[in-house]
Amino acid sequence: MQARKRTQILFAMLMLSIVMLFVAKAGVRADAPVNAVPLALNGQYSGDVALWEKNEEAGVTTEHKEDIYLITIPDDGAFEFRIMTFMDNRIYYSLWNADMSVNYLDGCGKYVSGGTATSPKTGAIKNVLSAGTYYLKIKCDSCDKDTANNKYRLMAQTTPYGVNDYGAYSYDQPLGYALGTDIVGALTFTDKEDWFLVNIPGGKYQLNIQNYSTNSIRFELMNQDLSKTILNETVYGMGEEETSPKVYNNKELQIEPGTYYIKMTGGSGKYKFNLRKNGKKEKLSCKVTAKRNKKKVTVKTTVGATVKVTYGGKTYTRVAGSSGKVTIKLSSKLKRGKKVKVKITKAGYSKLSKRYVVK
């Protein structure tokens, strides 16, 4: 019985291994690169890379009509690629994601043709990529009859943006934002929107947005369930000849206390924003009513302000409620010619002191 049981266990393990092997093979794409060549991002052209096709009459029994290169982007930033070809026939180039399931250049990709042995033609890609792994595919359907033309050279380089928007993926995966800090971000092929979550105490705020790309970007400030948009602002892109970013400033942005989302969308490029408390203190409102022979002083002021009234050597303190109105009962009657001292304070506001003479 033990031997039979051991055989059953071994058979079950064998079947499980076969299933796992089948699943693993099914998960591998047929066109996934096996011998991709790392592409240098140094801005220098490579040496000549030869292409050829079978020609058994000429003694050529193999063909080489496709190359795949590995691109490793260390940080979000601008990416530039160029291919110089000496071929008259078309040579295609396409940019793919890490598992080669998405071609960022659409269809078969782009192509360049019309080169000669003495006068090559050049194709180029300029865009913004997120940090990660990519593949560049170079191929031709047919090589030139003049074998001296069947070659190309490559150049690639990247300019990191120095971003700090890591992880700002979506509404469900936002990056926590601390008021007053700078966010430097990038919208790219694979990162078309950034989300940030921020807690705001309320009051007046200053917003600065800088757009360093030639594409427009949009800044949206929304409440926690996205049912209300507090600000929706588009910052247009820089002109081709401009060197300074397009800027948006708002120094009077009134925001109620709460939790908010910031969403950045737009074309590929670099942006920067900063949302901070308005450094300028607001003024408190104040209207005093004090009638002679009465035992009360009424002060109409800013909601939430602390009101101190001094009369007859005594000080009375109250906090203004939702109406902003404060009524203070005195221990003695108000007399003509006597002074009532009023002091009002509130965080984020300038202090206010006032003396009222009873009439």
Structural features, described:
There is one protein chain. This protein has 359 residues and is mostly beta strands. Helices cover 7% and strands 45% of the residues. The protein is built from one helix and 25 strands. It has a five-stranded mixed sheet, with no helix packed on it. A five-stranded mixed sheet has the order 10-12-17-14-15, with no helix packed on it. Strands 2-9-4-7 form a four-stranded antiparallel sheet, with no helix packed on it. The chain is rod-shaped, with a radius of gyration of 35 Å. It starts with a helix and ends with a strand.
Descriptors:
five-stranded mixed β-sheet; 359 residues; mainly beta
Uncertain segments are 9-30
The number of E-state strands comes to: 25
Overall 3D form = rod-shaped
Distance from first to last alpha carbon:
113 Å
Integer average pLDDT: 88
Beta-strand residue fraction: over 45%
Order of helices and strands: HEEEEEEEEEEEEEEEEEEEEEEEEE
Largest sheet entry: 5 strands, mixed
Q: Structural class of the secondary elements?
A: mainly beta
Percent helix: under 10%
Total of helices: 1
Compute the CA-based radius of gyration. Answer: 35 Å
Major beta sheet, strand line-up: 1-3-8-5-6
